[in-house]
Amino acid sequence: MADDAPVIYGLEFQARSLAPQSAETELNKFFIGTQSLRNENIIYHIEFEDESNGINKHVYRHPDGEIWQITSSPADKQIIATVYNSVSTTKAELKCSLWLLPPEEERSRTFDEPQSPTISLEKIVDLPRQEGDNLVHALWEPQGDGSKIASISESTLSYLDLNSADATARVIGSAGIDTKPAKKFCSLRWNPHQNCNQVATGFETSLRLWDLRSMKSVKHIENAHSQQIRDMDFNPNRQYYLVTCGDDCKIKFWDVRNADEPLKVLAHHSHWVWCVRYNQCHDQLILTGSSDSRVVLYSVNSLSSEPYGMLVGDDDDNENDKENQKEPIPQEDRMIGKFEEHEDSVYAVEWSIADPWIFASLSYDGRLVINRVPRDEKFRILL
Questions:
Q1: What is the rounded distance in angstroms from the CA atom of residue 247 to the CA atom of residue 273?
Q2: Closest C-alpha among 206, 359, 364, 227 to residue 291
Q3: Please, are residues 373 and 1 in contact by the beta-carbon 8 Å criterion?
Q4: What is the DSSP letter of 24?
Q5: pLDDT at position 313, please?
Q6: Is the distance from CB of 13 to CB of 35 less than 8 angstroms?
Q7: Sign of CA dihedral 121, 126, 132, 133
């Protein structure tokens, strides 16, 4: 098999939630949550073996409803959180719970057949919310000890302290949006800079940054997109840079210090853009996924921390050689490629935590695709 050939794996049910295992830094592991109305939903724990192009999996029962979002603890490999649709005879509500994975010795007994997993996740705690308020997204503090998590319901941003041992989740602070007509929160992302004291939220077409110490809005970008914002991500190496995507089919880059206009706008999708992710090591690499069934990989060097590539000095150069050297020329921004292995809407794209050249994408029909950054692009960055 060619080094750049994709690896495709089909799930038993429809799915839209994908997350890397944040605490796993040696193996390429991801979590996937299914979205089935008629069958019991399950969590796939996927491991991709780069050398053999093989996929190993464990499958666990998720006893509570279809899964809309999944995230994993940055500090504990055993803990994940899911946002799911809880259905009763009278109503359906979106809730969020923390779950404990089975011990390693029990996982080895997991059956290969995904439609009949015998091992269930153990619920640790439900995240608090107001009665009748749908909790739509939750994310751990990316660089913490796993004790802090942020969540959004349709009307409220919450900052919570977790204690897995005591099975408690305590609200430290909360904030709402005071707009008329009322707008709903729709997306959430932690800022990995500023000592992780900030989060960004999308509410319909607008964007806000919040200081979690005061629970006050510190930046507001009105009408950042012409239609609903679906996702966002912070540049891991440039603290003021943020990328957003939305239903207007566009990807926009912002400097939050001066956000009157976006720094750059990309428009290579033909339908809603559901997800966008920076590469955590090489921030010129940007991934997007869309309802047009495509995954697009960009190189945006002009806004990265490596506009000239990875420059390595030569200790043997003398002063005359250095004086005669030409100024380095910034590499151009471009679309590296479109990946078209999906046949349905792509709701999630994620980079591997263990290997910066590997990424996964998930479409609604349950197709997981593992891809790699093309070899020539990898060499262009490294050499």
A1: 6
A2: 364
A3: no
A4: -
A5: 47
A6: yes
A7: negative
- 307 exposure class (CB count in 10 Å sphere: 0-12, 13-18, 19+): middle
Nearest partner of 35 among 67, 83, 79, judged by Cα: 67
Sign (positive/negative) of CA torsion 359, 26, 113, 82? negative
**Percent over 90 (pLDDT), the chain:** 76
Six-digit token pair at 318?
Answer: 């003398």
- Give dist(CA 69, CA 32) in Å, integer: 9
Give the integer Cα–Cα distance in Å for 349 and 279.
11
In this structure, what DSSP letter does residue 122 have?
E
Q: Specify whether the CB–CB gap between 328 and 305 falls below 8 A.
A: no
Backbone angles phi, psi at 170, to 5 degrees: -110, 130
State the pLDDT confidence band at 312, using cuts at 50, 70 and 90.
very low
Which stretches does DSSP call E strand in 164-278?
Answer: 168-176, 185-191, 198-203, 206-211, 216-221, 229-234, 241-246, 251-255, 264-266, 273-278
Residue 303 CB partners (closer than 8 Å, separation 6+): 235, 238, 241, 253, 263, 264, 284
> 94 near 86, Cβ under 8 Å?
yes
- Torsion sign (Cα): 204, 210, 216, 222: negative
DSSP class of residue 309 equals B
pTM for the complete prediction?
A: 0.91
- Cis amide leading into 20 (omega within 30): no
145 or 309, which is more confident: 145
**Rounded CA gap, 166 and 105, in Å?**
24
Distance, C-alpha 140 to centroid of its chain: 11
Contacts of 72 (CB under 8 A, 6+ apart): 19, 20, 21, 22, 23, 31, 79, 80, 81, 140
Per DSSP, the three-state class of 38 is coil
Confidence of residue 167 (pLDDT cuts 50, 70, 90): confident
